[in-house]
């Protein structure tokens, strides 16, 4: 393996995609549900505070650009996304 190029070596060392998922295994969904509810409440409160602070149209444009970038980030890191990179 010492004389292999990086891409060739990565193909040998990568996780077999036919195996079971290697993500976090949860015993119960209670903690995840509580986290989702709390984080959603915090997001709503912070979003409301951000909207209250917008004083003119330029602030609204900046806030809209930030939101669009966040949506793009969520699409890019989505777990089920098919990668376009080799």
Write a concise synopsis of the structure shown.
With 86 residues, the protein is an all-alpha fold. The protein is built from three helices and no strands. The longest helix has 24 residues, at 30-53.
Structure, explained:
This protein has 86 residues and is an all-alpha fold. The protein has a domain at 27-80. Helices cover 60% and strands 0% of the residues. It is built from 3 helices and no strands. It has helices spanning 6-13, 30-53, 57-76. The mean pLDDT is 81.
Output the keywords.
single chain; 86 residues
Question: SSE layout and pairings?
Answer:
Elements: H1 6-13, H2 30-53, H3 57-76
Mean pLDDT: 81
Helix proportion range: 55-70%
Return residue spans where pLDDT drops below 50 for at least 5 consecutive residues: none
The secondary-structure class comes to mainly alpha
- Gyration radius (Cα, Å) is 21 Å
- Judging from the principal axes of the Cα atoms, what is the shape? flat
For the secondary structure, the number of strands is 0
* Percent of residues in β-strands: under 5%
First-last Cα distance? 21 Å
Total of helices: 3
Largest sheet: none
Could you state the order of secondary-structure elements as H and E?
A: HHH
